[in-house]
Amino acid sequence: MSNYNNYLQEAVSAARIAGQYQKSRLASSLSIEMKGDKNLVTEVDKESERLIVEHLLSSFPDHDIIAEEGDYLQRGSSCRWIIDPVDGTTNYAHGYPWFCTSIGLELEGELVAGVIYNPVYDELFTATKGGGAYLNGSKLSVSASNHLNNSLLGTGFPYDCATDPANNFANFIAFQKGARGIRRAGAAALDLAYVAAGRLDGFWELKLKAWDVAAGVLLVREAGGVVTTFDGSAYDIFNDKIVASNGQIHNEMVEMLASAASGPAGSNQ
Ligand code: IPD
Ligand code: CA
Ligand code: CA
Q: Which ligand 1 atom sits closest to the C-alpha of 207?
């Protein structure tokens, strides 16, 4: 049993509490506010975050919190929870049942525990540093695909893709030509969990935030995958470009991103 198991168990409880609430409100009438042109937030995002933070702080009152919908006092704790209460908010707001809760824990700046919960499928993805990655208790490992042309990839687009040229469009075209297929499902944390589970062979995206990726990055690494920035260099969760894969197709993905960046529409990164 891993050293981080007590933290993981509380994160699992918090994610299940939030997930049950999200399911109960799915496709109901929701109060929605706009954070930007396309970027919205629902009352369920806010209440989910409140439930998660309340649960974690009741167990760990001295820990720090970073979460998408609120600002929390930073106490300088060595433990910091990084929370996306609803990843896939656009889906959720439309009653499209593809979303999750993502909760990661850093200890002295290192990811040590992660939980991603899809309440609609009742799929709980968990990982602890050095302890492996699991789906509902069964050990996960990344896929064995060894070429881009037989790989299924995930990606997404930033909310400001209509106004900022760093929009991922040229990368998308390049991968759509070079890979077997691409899915833009709308929840980056689940995309990463799916790489860990071997359901996707790779994932890339830009302009993600730490709460989108914290749990998923640990899941991919613990399932035997590789996570870097677009140029193949070391990644941390505050980088705004991420490539995650089964490892076998990683170089091909990095090369594809480099050639898309130098092509005619190369400003898309
Ligand atoms: C978004 C989702 C989406 C990704 C966006 C994220 P949110 O998170 O993960 O897949 O493409 O860039 O911001 O807003 O639903 O929490
Ligand atoms: Ca998110
Ligand atoms: Ca969110």
A: 12
Write the residue with the smallest CA distance to atom 16 of ligand 1: 87
Find out whether the beta carbon of 89 lies less than 6 Å from any atom of ligand 1: yes
Domains and CATH numbers, the chain: 5-139 (3.30.540.10), 148-268 (3.40.190.80)
Does the pLDDT at position 163 exceed 90? no
118 lines ligand 1 (CB under 6 A): no
Q: Is the pLDDT of residue 265 over 70?
A: no
The finding on whether 186 has its CB within 6 A of some atom of ligand 1 is yes
Query: How many angstroms separate the CA atoms of 213 and 254, rounded?
Result: 19
Three-class SS state of 153: strand
pLDDT, tens only, 32-82:
888 888 889 999 999 999 999 999 999 999 999 999 999 999 999 999 999
